Amino acid sequence: MQSDTQAPRVGVIMGSTSDWPVMEHAVAMLERLGVSCESRVVSAHRTPDLLFDYAKGAAERGLSVIIAGAGGAAHLPGMVASQTALPVLGVPVESRALNGLDSLLSIVQMPGGIAVGTLAIGKAGATNAGLMAAQIVGLQDATVRAAVEAFRAEQTRSVLDHPDPRPD
Ligand code: RP5
């Protein structure tokens, strides 16, 4: 699924439809920052041939970054990284059995030589994966860079405008 009519620059993939409630936060951040993206289910274990095709074809299709989220035995980010030279950002999704610690360790402990940039478990990780992907795209795109800077400035202003921690 593609977020707008522009060719996608970031691919957001996940191991299962059950990962969407977390991974939608990566898509939301990309959309907020004006970065075109696509999202789809690609499973390391259930659709390994699709994983290889997706990763091998990603650069040729014009993607600049791949965000891969998975839970449990979360092999998707590492296997995608093994098949493309594009930067891969891994998002550990909270698992039902181990609360995402299994996902985190599966993603973060890559062997030297194949890199995955691992984010935090869950919503914060997905949000920051979207932000970091935009920052990478922004290296070559001044409009996206300006959107990231505006987002950061607005966030700072919002905190400074509400110094009282007590609820209204
Ligand atoms: C992983 O297994 C997925 O990334 C998901 O987080 C987890 C459970 O998948 P479902 O059984 O909910 O489809 O591959």
From TrEMBL:
It catalyses: 5-carboxyamino-1-(5-phospho-D-ribosyl)imidazole + H(+) = 5-amino-1-(5-phospho-D-ribosyl)imidazole-4-carboxylate. The keyword Isomerase applies. InterPro entries: PurE_ClassI, PurE_dom, PurE_prokaryotes. SUPFAM superfamilies: N5-CAIR mutase (phosphoribosylaminoimidazole carboxylase, PurE). It comes from the Bacteria. One of its GO terms (molecular function) is 5-(carboxyamino)imidazole ribonucleotide mutase activity. Its EC number is 5.4.99.18. It is an enzyme of class 5 (isomerase). Pathway: Purine metabolism; IMP biosynthesis via de novo pathway; 5-amino-1-(5-phospho-D-ribosyl)imidazole-4-carboxylate from 5-amino-1-(5-phospho-D-ribosyl)imidazole (N5-CAIR route): step 2/2. One of its GO terms (biological process) is 'de novo' IMP biosynthetic process. Substrate binds at S16, D19, R46. Residues 8-159 form the PurE domain. Coiled coil: none annotated. Signal peptide: none annotated. Keywords: Isomerase, Purine biosynthesis. Belongs to the AIR carboxylase family. Class I subfamily. Catalyzes the conversion of N5-carboxyaminoimidazole ribonucleotide (N5-CAIR) to 4-carboxy-5-aminoimidazole ribonucleotide (CAIR). This is N5-carboxyaminoimidazole ribonucleotide mutase. It comes from Halomonas ventosae.
